[in-house]
Write a structure and sequence with these properties.
about 270 residues; alpha+beta; two-stranded antiparallel ribbon; elongated
Length: about 270
C-alpha cells in the first residue's frame, strides 16, 4: 500500500509565512521611506540608529566652526581693482566668485568712510546696484552715513591702499557735501573737478558782440550818407545797405549729440 502524504488543511508552512510577511513589510517600509523628504528621512535613520545602538544627538551634530557663506568668501578674496583677465582662469572657485562680484559693481564714483579722517585714514569702496538706483555717491553725498543733497562738490583722489601685502594706487572720484569735503581735505588738499566751460556758448557770445559792434558802425555810416543823398519814395536805403553790406549769416544748429553733451556736462563731471 502507498503511504498517504500528510496534509496541512491548506495552511502554508511557517517558514513560507515568515518570508511572505517580511516581503510585505519591506514593501511598506520602502514606500514609507520614499514618500519622506530628505530631512525627515535623515532624522528617521538617526533615531533608528540611536534606538538600536544607543548614543546622543550631540554625537551627530556637525562642526560649523569652519562654515563660510558666499559673502565670507568674497570678503576674503576681494580686491579693489582687478585686471581684465585676472580671476577668470584661476583654479580656485573662491577667486572666480570674487571676480564675478567685482564685475557687477559700478566703478564711476566711490563710497567713502570718513569716520577716522583726523588720523588721515579714509576707506573707499565701489557702489552697489541699489546705491546707483538711489543716487548715492552721485546725487547724494558719497560719505557712508551722510544723506546731504545740496552743494555737492566733485573730488579726484589718488587713493593709496595696501592689498595682499602690495601697495597700490588708484585715481577715484568722490561727490561730497561741504562738511564731508572739509573732512576729506583735513590733511591734504585734493584736486577738485570743476565743470568744463562750454566753448560753443563762449564763441556765440563773441559773435554776438562782434555783430553788435558791426551794426553800430554801420548805423553811423548810414546816418552820414543819408544827409547827402536823397531817398526815393517807397525804398529804404537802410534795408538796401543792410542786405548787401556783407555775406548772409548762416546760423549753425547744434546736432542732437552736442545738445545731449551740453545737458549732461554738469551732471557727469
Amino acid at each position: 500500500m502507498k503511504k498517504r502524504k500528510r496534509t496541512t488543511d491548506g495552511k502554508p508552512k511557517r517558514r513560507e509565512a515568515e518570508t511572505e510577511y517580511s516581503r510585505e513589510e519591506a514593501k511598506i517600509q520602502r514606500f514609507h521611506i520614499v514618500s519622506m523628504d530628505a530631512f525627515s528621512r535623515h532624522k528617521k535613520f538617526v533615531n533608528d540608529y540611536m534606538l538600536y545602538y544607543g548614543g546622543k544627538k550631540t554625537d551627530f551634530k556637525r562642526d560649523t566652526s569652519r562654515d563660510k557663506t558666499d559673502m565670507d568668501v568674497i570678503r576674503e578674496n576681494h580686491q579693489f581693482l582687478w585686471e581684465e583677465d585676472e580671476g577668470e582662469s584661476d583654479d580656485s572657485w573662491e577667486r572666480r566668485l570674487a571676480k564675478k562680484y567685482f564685475d557687477k559693481l559700478f566703478k564711476e564714483y566711490c563710497i567713502t568712510d570718513l569716520s577716522r579722517y583726523k588720523e588721515n585714514k579714509v576707506a573707499m569702496r565701489w557702489r552697489t546696484e541699489q546705491e546707483v538706483v538711489d543716487g548715492k555717491g552721485q546725487f547724494i553725498c558719497g560719505s557712508r552715513k551722510c544723506c546731504e543733497k545740496e552743494g555737492l562738490r566733485s573730488w579726484e583722489v589718488n587713493f593709496g591702499y595696501l592689498e595682499q601685502g602690495i601697495k597700490k594706487n588708484a585715481l577715484v572720484k568722490l561727490r561730497l557735501c561741504p562738511d564731508c569735503s572739509y573732512k576729506l581735505n583735513y590733511h591734504h588738499k585734493k584736486k577738485e573737478i570743476l565743470p568744463k566751460k562750454k566753448k560753443g556758448k563762449h564763441k556765440n557770445r563773441e559773435d554776438d558782440d562782434n555783430a553788435k559792434r558791426h551794426k553800430t558802425d554801420h548805423h553811423h555810416s548810414e546816418h552820414g550818407s543819408n544827409n547827402e543823398a536823397t531817398e526815393s519814395p517807397g525804398w529804404s536805403s537802410n534795408t538796401d545797405q543792410s542786405i548787401w553790406s556783407g555775406p548772409a549769416k548762416i546760423t549753425e544748429e547744434k546736432s542732437r549729440e552736442e545738445e545731449f553733451d551740453d545737458y549732461f556736462n554738469d551732471m557727469f563731471l
